[in-house]
Design brief:
alpha+beta, four-stranded mixed sheet, 67% helix
Length: 479
């Protein structure tokens, strides 16, 4: 399966939008620097607020446990007072579990299965428990008063609910701000290193559209300015032309008189030419008779020349056939037991039939299609051999697949990490990355030369990628 020329041009046109104009690159870098600083400030503020909120909840819970459970400073677990340990556990349970769940440090969201349904224990167990314990702790401060206020329980419940929910959403906001900070930092590195705006890679079509509209507006303004200048110049020329037309009208009258005189002279020359043509006609008739006689003599001469030409072409074809006659080259190498083996020296061969018969995956990404087109060009120039196989790979079936180009005859395997641009499949997690690295190590142990290229390398410096593949194959052949 091959990609037609129109498809290749559409892909190249699409990726031209991702190269940032150097004129605005510095502005984009400054914007990302400010965004990174802003996310860091938000992260710090949320963390500080959560700390003070947790400190206040800790103080209320410590007093509550002391009153309700009759605990004193002498009641300890190991060297820590029991009321302090219980207060720390209750205060930290909701923020820590929320941070772990939102950041997915364990690889996935925290879920509990019950009666065939999955639900979040944080929302349905930890958060209500935190509200209940905080509610009881707030009520403890009012239980010893002589005239308790009847609205105290309602107020205590509202305070507990607000405090717990605030701590819950503060924890979610901290993780979100940190993720945004990491994303902005990576995008800034992409801008600085490759000069590529990373937002279109995340399908931010709106930014690409605005950029294109901005460029179109600039071109339209420049074109309008040129048209205004042209109209102004034409107006000045018309005024100048009006003056010139009056002078030219007078000159035309003089030219008209001269033309009438020339026409009369040309009429006289025409009559003289007619007399000469009549004389040439008589001469041509005599020449035609001579040509008829010559044709009768030239016909057998032409037939003889044609037969001789065919004979010379046969001899030339025989000479070319002898030049193309070659025998396979053999290389002699000795094995460990002293016997001699004859090994055919591998050479690069390519034909359209071989490339056509090479089965390609049906779901290629735009990056993979562009890479295969460049690879095919190098193969057609006989600088690289035809791959034995082109296939996809993913650590798990649910994950997006990356492209593999297998030069099995030469012991080289090329991985193109384009899984982020596939239509189907999930993003690779930490476990998938670990499984992938294990596979690379396994391929190397089995004797393969493994090459791994990121999307940025393939799109920004494709010639270097192809050169590394060529060097790997040559080193395998030399070894």
């Amino acid at each position: 399966m091959t990609l037609n020329e129109s498809g290749r041009q559409e892909i190249e046109k699409e990726y031209q939008n991702y190269i940032e104009n150097p004129k605005y690159r510095k502005q984009l870098e400054k914007w990302y620097e400010k965004e990174k600083t802003r996310q860091l400030i938000i992260f710090s503020i949320l963390l500080i607020v959560l700390f003070f909120l947790g400190f206040g909840q800790f103080a209320i819970l410590e007093y509550s446990f002391e009153e309700r459970l009759a605990l004193s400073d002498s009641d300890k677990i190991l060297i820590f007072p029991i009321k302090v340990v219980l207060s720390i556990l209750v205060t930290a349970a909701l923020p820590i579990s929320t941070l772990l769940d939102e950041s997915e440090l364990i690889g996935q969201k925290i879920k509990i299965s019950l009666f065939g349904k999955k639900f979040s224990p944080i929302v349905w167990i930890i958060l209500p428990g935190d509200v209940l314990l905080t509610f009881q702790a707030v009520l403890t401060g009012n239980q010893n008063t002589k005239d308790p206020d009847p609205f105290i329980p309602a107020i205590a419940f509202i305070v507990a609910a607000i405090s717990s929910n605030f701590a819950f959403y503060l924890s979610k906001g901290i993780v979100a701000a940190y993720k945004k900070y990491i994303t902005v930092r990576e995008e800034l590195q992409t801008i600085i290193i490759y000069g590529v705006n990373p937002r279109p890679f995340y399908k931010n079509a709106e930014q690409v559209r605005l950029n294109e509209e901005y460029e179109a507006a600039i071109k339209e303004a420049e074109q309008t300015k040129k048209e205004l200048e042209k109209i102004k110049n034409e107006k000045e020329n018309l005024q100048f032309q009006h003056i010139k037309d009056q002078e030219e009208f007078k000159q035309l009258k003089l030219l008209e008189a001269e033309q009438v005189q020339k026409i009369q002279e040309l009429e006289q020359k025409r009559q003289e030419l007619e007399r000469k043509i009549s004389a040439y006609k008589n001469y041509a008739d005599s020449t035609s008779q001579l040509k008829t006689s010559f044709v009768k003599v030239s016909k057998p001469i032409k037939e003889l020349i044609v037969q001789g030409k065919k004979m010379f072409e046969d001899f030339a074809g025989l000479d070319e056939s002898i030049k193309d006659l070659k025998f396979p080259s053999l290389e002699i190498s000795s094995s460990e037991n002293g016997k001699i083996k004859f090994v055919e020296i591998p050479t690069y061969r390519y034909s359209n039939l071989l490339w056509k018969d090479l089965e390609l995956p049906s779901d290629l990404s735009p990056v993979g299609i562009n890479f295969l087109n460049s690879l095919r060009t190098i193969v057609e120039q006989q600088e690289l051999p035809v791959p034995n196989n082109v296939r996809n790979y993913a650590p798990n079936k649910e994950l997006a697949q990356c492209l593999i180009i297998d030069f099995e005859n030469y012991g080289v395997i090329v991985y193109c990490r384009d899984e982020g641009y596939r239509k189907s499949g999930e993003k690779w997690n930490a476990q998938a990355e670990s499984d992938f690295e294990s596979k690379l190590v396994s391929d190397q142990i089995n004797g393969y030369c493994v090459l791994k290229f990121a999307v940025q390398e393939v799109m920004s410096n494709q010639s270097v990628v192809l050169e590394r593949i060529k060097d790997a194959i040559n080193s395998k052949m030399d070894g």
